[in-house]
## 1
Amino acid sequence: MNNLATKAKITWCPGCPNSAILVAFRQAISELVETEKLKFENIVISAGIGCHGKITDYVNVNSFTSLHGRALPVMTGIKCANPKLTVVGFSGDGDSFAEGIGHLVHTARRNSDIKVFLHANQVFALTTGQTTPLSPKGYRSKSTPFGSIEEPFTPLPMLLESGATFLARTYAEDIAGTKKAMIAAITHKGFSFVEIIQPCITFFDTREYFKDRIYSIPENFPVQDKKTVLEFLTAPNEKTPVGIFYNVEKPTFEEQLWS
Ligand SMILES: Cc1ncc(C[n+]2csc(CCOP(=O)(O)OP(=O)(O)O)c2C)c(N)n1
């Protein structure tokens, strides 16, 4: 763990759940390295632009900070050039579902063997809380002072339909749960997507909202049954299920490219 820290000063707001995501990620890769499932030198992390993107400064592994919304094509490029590498990316919901939406769905469609961890805070946090495609209808911000009139995307069913082969959701404050999902996502072969609910405590503090709504799905969830998974993820639900929802094997973009 100590080897993974850097000298960069952490500039997230004090108490921001991004710090919990950082801890979960450092723990996940420490465990993968200690159990010899991964070598430090074979890990590359990437990110878009936003509060989430600062994470590349805080983990002492190879990294590439991309442009806003453009981490995924960079990651696919890295994986194509050197398939030995394990490529993990961090993205914000503005980054992935606004600026980077085209890259997101096509990277999932190709089943590129990269892993995406979404810091889902439902706002453009770094630029002070504007509405993103995941903000709820009615959300008031500097960009929608009378309340957003648009319906938000729901990431997991959208990614399932796009072609992702691993899907999970976690709550950032649950470090053990996030670490577990990260390890499963990293060891999965193919496009993995983990939606990490990360309340933005400064611009859209949803901690109270999620406190009593989060619940874990059972360990024996039918993760290979796409129809059931889609029905579950799109069914009206007052609560917010977390866990691993989908996990199937399919040929990856990179292995087909080089075959
Ligand atoms: C192409 C482009 N558009 C807009 C910006 C300005 N910008 C920088 S960070 C940011 C917000 C990022 O929000 P999000 O991706 O949700 O990440 P968060 O800060 O919430 O982690 C924006 C809009 C930019 N850098 N590049």
## 2
Amino acid sequence: MEWTEARVDQLKRLWEEGLSASQIASRLGDVTRNAVIGKAHRLGLSSRPSPIKRVNHPITATQERMCQWPIGNPRDPSFRFCGKTAAPDRPYCEEHCAMAYRRKSDNAA
Ligand SMILES: [Zn+2]
């Protein structure tokens, strides 16, 4: 399959109409969805909003004063952060600050 000028024009038009890459691929024929996406990218066509919504990270800017002590295994779906109010100028609550300090002195010993 070659990207002739006519096919590129058609790709641009369909892309701007908001068709999905797979719909464009079937209109053009003899081309894969991935080829359409790749060509659109190379043409610098503006990317369209993805249907996949970003998942908010548990620690956001508004929650940055929360204790960020990890609880559980990060690979485990139940993994979370402590979430208590952090001590001033510390990333952790007082309880976890104490644990962090104890760990450091354990390492030093
Ligand atoms: Zn904590």
